[in-house]
């Protein structure tokens, strides 16, 4: 089955299921892709404003954080936080969240805002952003409090009749269940759909090729981006006139303009230019390259027929808590003495196979999987110790482990029909934190062109 070139560029080199794709398009309208965050106590942020109030996080002391629900329509997370902070009159760093949600979607999630009142928050007026204060909270919100996300997705323009669509989707989801869960690839959003370059920037940074990293970030252009920004990038690529580029780059390319402001003063200070960016953004570059390598490891395991729901000698495995969340510690390595016991635990949902996010603090697997990972790293010309460069950017991309599969919960087909575009269907499902809805949709749709299909 043909895999699109853009998927391969992101390290996703195969499909896990054998069913034919239904095709179609997602995100034809913002409301076609709805994401609602779920916390570890089951509280759910809702786009309709009827959000649950968490049962945890209250105390008599340390109540300097206001817990709110942030509903945004068509905003990327970092831009939304920056604009909202400006509207409230605070620093962006005073707003904390557990997860980054899709930009081209209608999303609801919990956030904490430090040092403000409910009136401060409700007085903020930003188009397509709504903030609902809930109560005081005892600490900053983080991914620790996040269980997962519920998705409500409409797929349109499907070249099938409703009965065939439903039958194909059910077979695909059943195949995923047989695998032990959805292969836990990092989705297209991790790398940038319009310009999928964040992992390439990350690779250049760990190789200490700062000039190439800056060139990729500033000048790599795509036919899918706005003509104004594309032409500005092309002009900079041809001239390397950073001062001129600072005048030509549109104001909405705020991060590029931050780098250009430094390079206009000191054209060779590429490290300094990256330091002008938010720490979280620099961290994303390193993480994106780790994510790309993880995708390649997982692809190779699938392509070589090594099970995802059964551990081989040399594999890493993680414990799974009562909520189904893989726990980073303690980690076990499978050997001949514990393999049977571990595979029983995997079958009972108490453990899971994990693959490495390579870094200075995370070694490759052992056994057959370790050989595969070393082969991929050799092809990439990369080693875990290369990530030591991250100290220059005040981030710690030490690495870690990520579950090879993730459960798909509460999957349902809500309704289906047909119109002038073809067939359409609405699905709902829940994934654990850090897992991507588009990875499941990719298996269902198997799009010929993921970008045109809305990924």
How would you describe this protein?
The protein has 455 residues and is an alpha+beta fold. The protein is built from 14 helices and 14 strands. The strands form 3 sheets. Strands 1, 2, 3, 4, 5, 6, 13 and 14 form an 8-stranded mixed sheet that branches. Strands 9-8-10-11 form a 4-stranded antiparallel sheet. A two-stranded antiparallel sheet has the order 7-12. Helix 5 (198-206) packs across helix 11 (279-303), helix 8 (242-248) runs antiparallel to helix 9 and helix 11 crosses helix 13. It starts with a helix and ends in a 10-residue tail after the last helix. 44% of the residues are buried. The model has no long low-confidence stretch (mean pLDDT 94).
Write the layout of secondary structure elements.
Layout: H1 5-9, E1 33-39, E2 65-73, H2 77-88, E3 95-97, E4 106-114, H3 118-122, E5 129-137, E6 146-158, H4 162-178, E7 182-183, H5 198-206, H6 210-219, H7 227-239, H8 242-248, H9 254-265, H10 270-275, H11 279-303, E8 316-320, E9 326-333, H12 339-347, E10 351-357, H13 367-380, E11 400-403, E12 405-406, E13 409-419, E14 422-432, H14 437-445
Parallel strand pairs: 1-4
Antiparallel strand pairs: 1-6, 2-4, 2-5, 3-4, 6-14, 7-12, 8-9, 8-10, 10-11, 13-14
Helix pairs in contact: 5-6, 5-11, 7-8, 8-9, 11-13
CATH architecture heading of the largest domain: 2-Layer Sandwich
Count every beta strand, where a strand is a DSSP E run of 2 or more residues. Answer: 14
CATH domain class of the largest domain? Alpha Beta
* Helix content estimate: 25-40%
Distance between the termini: 19 Å
Strand content: 15-25%
How many separate domains make up the residues?
3
